[in-house]
């Protein structure tokens, strides 16, 4: 039986969605259909808390639309795990964040690993996620000083900076594995793994395999406690359409 997994790029750069979709399809099982979408509302890239906050409404709209179409799981393809808690509270299907997926995957195969992300303003939120997911004693986070959109420009030197930071992580952190800390790096994992001779984890691929596992096991997000469906109440102004129940019904 074919299953459908929705992969949402919560920024508005469609070319990055294509990179993400290719990585997702490259690891998906033969029975899995990947539906990749780009948010229609929000920033061109997500770099820091401000961008993240303003990307959430568009992300929620895409997940709600995917759930109405009958997808069995959703993946949020931003390493900040943008809007993850809100999406899990809203949706009845499993929702996977690529940071949580990548860290858990890395923990299966290495005692010490380093997340290499883009910029310093992104490093701090990722460190917070490392702590939240219980990986503080095992994971270090580094920033390669790469604007997210530079990953799509071959002339930017971004890939060279990423390689240099990975080399420092191997030498200085004694990293046993590398986690790529941006969905825009998804297409680089296999080559970097071959070049450095250690596991390199892409969060998009990790999230797809974990979503498939949840679907196969018949598991979804608990609706008791923190991820219980939002209480009915009116929302006003620009967010009126996000009143609980309104997003799912559109």
Automatic annotation (TrEMBL):
It comes from the Bacteria. It holds the Pfam family Asp_Glu_race. InterPro entries: Asp/Glu/hydantoin_racemase (IPR015942), Hydantoin_racemase-like (IPR052186), Iso_Racemase_Enz_sf (IPR053714). It is an enzyme of class 5 (isomerase). Its EC number is 5.1.99.5. It catalyses: a D-5-monosubstituted hydantoin = a L-5-monosubstituted hydantoin; D-5-benzylhydantoin = L-5-benzylhydantoin; D-5-isobutylhydantoin = L-5-isobutylhydantoin. GO terms for molecular function: amino-acid racemase activity; hydantoin racemase activity. Belongs to the HyuE racemase family. This is Hydantoin racemase. It comes from Mesorhizobium jarvisii.
């Amino acid at each position: 039986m074919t299953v459908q997994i929705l992969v949402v790029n919560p920024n508005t750069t469609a070319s990055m969605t294509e990179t993400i979709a290719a990585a997702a399809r490259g690891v998906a099982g033969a029975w899995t259909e990947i539906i990749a979408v780009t948010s229609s509302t929000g920033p061109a890239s997500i770099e820091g808390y401000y961008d993240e906050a303003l990307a959430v409404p568009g992300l929620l709209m895409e997940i709600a639309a995917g759930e109405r179409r009958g997808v069995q799981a959703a993946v949020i393809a931003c390493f900040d795990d943008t809007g993850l808690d809100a999406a899990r509270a809203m949706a009845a299907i499993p929702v996977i964040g690529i940071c949580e997926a990548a860290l858990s995957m890395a923990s299966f195969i290495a005692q010490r690993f380093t997340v290499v992300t883009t910029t310093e303003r992104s490093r701090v939120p990722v460190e917070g996620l490392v702590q939240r997911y219980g990986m503080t004693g095992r994971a270090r986070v580094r920033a390669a000083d790469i604007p997210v959109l530079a990953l799509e420009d071959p002339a930017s030197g971004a890939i060279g900076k990423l390689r240099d930071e990975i080399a420092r992580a191997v030498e200085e952190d004694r990293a046993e594995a590398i986690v790529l800390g941006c969905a825009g790096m998804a297409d680089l994992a296999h080559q970097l793994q071959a070049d450095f001779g250690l596991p390199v984890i892409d969060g998009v691929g990790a999230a797809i395999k974990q979503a498939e596992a949840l679907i196969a096991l018949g598991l979804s997000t608990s609706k008791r406690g923190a991820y219980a469906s939002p209480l009915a109440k009116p929302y006003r102004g620009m967010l009126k359409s996000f009143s609980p129940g309104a997003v799912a019904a559109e």
